[in-house]
Structures are given as structure tokens and as C-alpha cells.
Specification:
This protein is mostly beta strands. The protein contains 1 helix and 6 strands. Strands 1, 2, 3, 4, 5 and 6 form a 6-stranded antiparallel β-sheet that branches. A hairpin with a 5-residue loop joins strand 3 and strand 4. It is elongated, with a radius of gyration of 19 Å.
Length: 118
């Protein structure tokens, strides 16, 4: 597959909770958020678009999961999963220095499973 880059991260914002004094007495938790991006070769994008029904855009592709596997130095295989991804943008940017054409896509996702068991 013509994936040149995948980035994913999540955030669960935390805030200090204060009582009568100057120092925090506890912690509060705000909403969880996650984000991801994917960079594909133009040929891969063209193949994805060719598989769509006429008139559909890449942003119309249904939600999908992305499973990432990589080996730890110990030999352990870690598996992360990016859940419910959808493309949010489309376009092409080319410069005369590029030997290949790659397109970066922002993905909307619901959450990330770190070191999941399949």
C-alpha cells in the first residue's frame, strides 16, 4: 500500500481543582480528543477514488479502522488501532523538487487503542 506517513495521537486534558488554599486539592478531567493524519502516494489515492461510485468523493468513504503493528526491541509485537477514521479533506500540492506526488489527509477519528490485543 502506498502509505508514506501515519500520525496519530490523543489527549485527555486535566486541570487542577482548588479548595480554600493556594495548592490544588485534586484533579478534574475534561474531554478526551484524538487526531490522525495519513499521507498517501497519488497513485494510491487514484486507486481509492477509482473504486468509489461515480460522483463520490474520498470524504464519502465510510468509517474504517487502521491497525498499526511494530516490533519492540524485545521482539514483542505491539498493535495500536485508530478507530472510526474518515477523510476530511482532499487536494494535491506539487512542487518541482518532488520526485513523487504525495497527498496528506487529515482524518477525523473517535479514539485510539494503544497496545491492543487482537
Amino acid at each position: 500500500m502506498g502509505i508514506t506517513s501515519l500520525t496519530y495521537k490523543d489527549n485527555h486534558e486535566k486541570v487542577n481543582a482548588y479548595g480554600a488554599g493556594r495548592m490544588p486539592v485534586g484533579r478534574g478531567y475534561k474531554k478526551y480528543s484524538a487526531e490522525a493524519s495519513l499521507t498517501l502516494y497519488k497513485e494510491e489515492v487514484d486507486a481509492l477514488k477509482a473504486a468509489l461510485v461515480p460522483g463520490a468523493r474520498i470524504q464519502d468513504i465510510a468509517m474504517f479502522d487502521i491497525t498499526v503493528e511494530y516490533a519492540r526491541p524485545s521482539g514483542y509485537i505491539q498493535r495500536d488501532r485508530v478507530y472510526n477514521a474518515e477523510f476530511t479533506n482532499d487536494g494535491v500540492e506539487i512542487t518541482n523538487e518532488d520526485g513523487t506526488i504525495s497527498i496528506q489527509y487529515t482524518l477525523i477519528i473517535t479514539h485510539i487503542g494503544w497496545d491492543i490485543v487482537i
